[in-house]
Write a structure and sequence with these properties.
Layout lengths: L4 H12 L16 H16 L3 E4 L5 E5 L9 E5 L13 H17 L7 E5 L13 H6 L5 H6 L8 H7 L15 E7 L4 H4 L4 E7 L1 E10 L3 E2 L11 H18 L5 E10 L5 E2 L2 E10 L2 H22 L2 E10 L2 E2 L2 H14 L3 E6 L4 H8 L2 E6 L15 H19 L4
Parallel strand pairs: 3-4, 3-5, 5-15, 6-14
Antiparallel strand pairs: 1-2, 2-4, 6-13, 6-15, 7-11, 7-12, 8-10, 9-11
Helix pairs in contact: 1-3, 1-12, 3-12, 8-9, 10-12
Bound molecules: (2S)-amino(hydroxy)ethanoic acid and manganese (II) ion (2 copies).
Amino acid sequence: MRINGDRLWDTLMDMAKIGPGIAGGNNRQTLTDADAEGRSLFKTWCDKAGMTVGVDKMGTMFATRAGTDPDALPVYVGSHLDTQPTGGKYDGVLGVLAALEVVRTMNDLGIKTKHPIVVTNWANEEGARFAPAMLASGVFAGVHTLDYAYGRKDPDGKTYGDELKRIGWLGDEEVGARKMHAYFEYHIEQGPILEAADKTIGVVTHCQGLWWLEFTLTGKEAHTGSTPMAMRVNAGLAMSRIVEMVQSVAMENQPGAVAGVGQVFFSPNSRNVLPGKVVFTVDLRTPDKEKLDRMRAKIEAETKKISDGLGVGCAVEAIGHFEPVTFDPKLVASVRNAAEKLGYSHMDIISGAGHDACWAAKVAPATMVMCPCVGGLSHNEAEEISKEWAAAGADVLFHAVVETAEIVA
Ligand code: HGY
Ligand code: MN
Ligand code: MN
């Protein structure tokens, strides 16, 4: 039993037409009109596959294929359709559309399972527009309140709650009311390990933990031309020294730790005005909980020395966090056995990127399947996978999901 790789690939390419980027990828950021369009297309496909679509108060979509036992908790299979501003065509999208392909294949083969199957599109996995990442699955797992989530603002000051209403995808289901028998997520690796090892399947045993630390530095707006160097309260200089220090802390903690800065805001952001305010986020990750917290403490202690030394005000707020995750050994084994049975090369792997599965794992047995991506590149419009890789991971997902959902006929 195999999925239909051509149909999966065509479905991926159809979705990729919505919210196109400028360099072959996608810009389908959460709660934008492009996201709304992608959601509608996904719902059309789910309706055609005979599924019933429900939406919760965070806008997460749940498409149900009935099981034979209405009392049996469903097996959830999903990921996210929202993308980074310069995202690829596969990050998240592959997991949602491969889950749809699992159902389409079950329909083709007339497979019945005891447990229902629920194909899931989590809202705002990326956290690019509204921080933190995995916001909707975080509310689902009870990590964030609905009010906190609704109040999250994008760089233009728009709130999550208002934007969800505006695009017409505010659902009526209580977030987290659904109970899961198991959760599976299929995702591109977003790193170089599988391709370098020439393995087709990643059997994901763990996911590394994360801190997103938002730094607000307060300097003194002044003329970049007429202000003597000794008179400057230079928040931009403080930022650059902190970014350099963060790099050193990560390098001191090799192997198995990463840290960096992807987003910086200068205010007033004028070429000839020293910034009065600099806001940036440090993204810090490692699979080792003790190391994660030790690195955070070191970065914050060093930051104080740097900002005090320059007379720059400094506030640090943790705006995102999850501890390293251990996925469910039984489900991990079902993925490994499926890869073995199907004859796909595979290796155990720790996920470098965060996923909705990290929060699902707090409320249900959860695990992931991974396929390689070309050059390990992701969060870049040039993100690429092969059609064969896409289909192989979906085959493994299909077998692991159907086994967990208990075939009846
Ligand atoms: O940040 C992450 O790891 C994910 O791509 N949102
Ligand atoms: Mn993703
Ligand atoms: Mn991503």
